[in-house]
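Changelog-linked ticket: S-adenosylmethionine example.
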Amino acid sequence: MSDLSFPNLLACPMDGSPLTRVQGSWRCPAGHSFDIARQGYINLLPVQNKRSKDPGDSKEMVLARQEFLSTGYYKPIADAVSDLVNASVPADRPSSILDAGCGEGYYLRELTKSRLINNGSRLHLTGVDISKWAVMAAARQEKNADWIVGSNANLPLLPACQDVVLCLFGFPVYQEFNRVLTANGVLVKVDAGPDHLIELREIIYPCIKPANQPENTPPGFTLLEQRSLRYRIRLNNQTQISQLLTMTPHLYRITAEGRARAEALTELSLTINVQINKLVAGDGEIKF
Ligand SMILES: C[S@@+](CC[C@H](N)C(=O)[O-])C[C@H]1O[C@@H](n2cnc3c(N)ncnc32)[C@H](O)[C@@H]1O
Ligand SMILES: [Zn+2]
């Protein structure tokens, strides 16, 4: 859990009013109370907002992502995200960063490291994910952040409290991102590009459909900067190949034959191709 000197940003998921910390829990004026779990995260996803008993990524998917990302294969993506964030926040005052759909927290951890290297001002980090397994894994690995089980569809955060929102391979809800961003707040979005993991897709699918490309400028935002990142990696064993497959949406789409072909692989060279967009809420005019 991050330090308490930063103004509180959390909102009650039932009625949107500010939450205040009272010892081991967060409470709203109406009396709704949310305990801080032993691992240091908070569950702000009301049962009635859950579409399933265990929403979001499973324990297995979270573990696979954690192990795969720890190898450093996606570090160039994390570096590009950290560079964009560092260039978007002022050097002389603390800023608040939300990772919406944070998974097991890799990108916020890498951002923290980049700040230490560059001696940047303090950041207040918040990671929200609908998967309790993801949030538990994130809370175990990084104590200096607020880790929250919650949904992008109803972010348990006060309006206009975030300087930057990250949505990395995630599920964007633009209206909510707009609501929680400050007046000149920035959204950094990373999505798979057309050639992302193309070699794996050629192996697991009988024919490849062009990937749906996300819209560049979603409603309520103005595109400030767009970057395409492309590089190659080589996976050297079946464990890494299986971890990669388990952490992608291909896990849900793959057929039994496709899976068998993937399971027979012992090495694989892959293209990493992502689209990185930096957007600003509103019409792009600086608000004073
Ligand atoms: C493809 S993973 C990406 C995770 C992380 N951003 C990363 O790149 O390592 C998508 C994540 O979105 C989460 N998720 C799915 N629906 C969500 C929602 N409505 N609100 C917040 N998170 C959600 C999943 O649990 C999963 O952790
Ligand atoms: Zn309440």
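Closing comment: Example verified and attached. Residues 12, 14-15, 17, 28, 30, 32 surround zinc ion (ligand 2) (CB under 6 Å). The mean pLDDT is 92.
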